[in-house]
Design goal:
13 strands, globular, disordered N terminus, 18 helices, TIM Barrel, 3-stranded antiparallel beta sheet, alpha/beta, 3 domains
Length: about 425
Amino acid sequence: MNKIVLTAIVCGLLFACQQPINKKVTEKVVETEEKHKLQLVYSNLVDTESQQEVQQALAAAGVSTKNIGDFLESVALFNNTVGAKVGLVPQGYATIDSLLPQYDEAAIQSQWTRKYPIFQGGMAWVADGDLAGAVSKAGGLGIIGGGNAPKEVVKANIDKIKSLTDKPFGVNIMLLSPFVEDIVDLVIEEGVKVVTTGAGNPSKYMQRFHDAGITVIPVVPSVALAKRMKKIGADAVIAEGMEAGGHIGKLTTMTLVRQVVEAIDIPVIAAGGIADGRGAAAGFMLGAEAVQVGTRFVVAKESNAHQNYKNMILKARDIDTTISAQHFGHAVRALKNKLTREFDQAEKDAFKQENPDLTVFENLGAGALANAVVRGDVEHGSVMSGQIAGLVSKEETVEEILKDIYYGAAEVIQKEASRWAGVTRND
């Protein structure tokens, strides 16, 4: 029992409250150890037996079941963070003579703030402070969709997130926005930790971002662009396949992610067509470090998207999305409605003209997303949605979505791994 209690104390010191280790506490521990030369028992609690021993000891000491569960979950997260490089106790217990940490505290502290390797897509008009804040608070990475919004609107969303959580969050900056300079200034002023970018080249802002300690993650639709982003200093890229909703490229997630992973040596986040554990597992198997999810978060209970918009996604079938403006303007994936049919007709008409008037497409698209998201006009508005909409069938909380994706991926990976455990090459 003493062994177990000491183990729990040691773990508690390392894991407590997700806070950096206090210098005075560390100095006191050193002083105490020098005086008494304590030998302690340590465990990383990676095996079932040691976990059960500690669980029983904590329960006997009157610790609640919930707190025990939270503790063991934190232990698992810690182990996943520090990895094998720091010499984990493979199972059971080991004798140690110091409580001083032998780990990269900065890396661990960073990981504590992001429990799930899941980004919420920076969807314009949808990804506001309420949604992004809920995602970050629950352990994912919430991202405000900057879109073409002015500085004061983005500022209000940042303020909202800060009122909900102290966890890191991101802002998606559309580089073609007329307010891009203001938004760049804003994210630096507000201490935003992550910026994702789209619709342009972020090179002119890269040094300012990095000087401010901001992680820069451009969205890329091709290997060539991924290489370019890496060259200009991007910290990671989001490889988004054409299955995604909104503005899209020409490659599928399956083909794009694998080739981007092979081409660059910075982290890759897989996006496009991911809404559950199986989809996330596929992204990880392709070599992604994390996944980005959009459509499923649109229908989250914390999402302020109009209920008409949500309902249309919830009712969608696998074949209900279409691509508009493929040949004229910027290709957009959305659910089929009157607006998409008007786009189709405009494209047919344009093909018949030697010098087509492209302003027709601009006029059709102007304000269309806001019409759907804010005002609920799902016939004349643009109901942007990924092809995975057919899999999204219910409204859930952000926390429920994150857990379903994360633990669903783990379950799939573990199950499928057992199929291949005994396979060896013998040729």
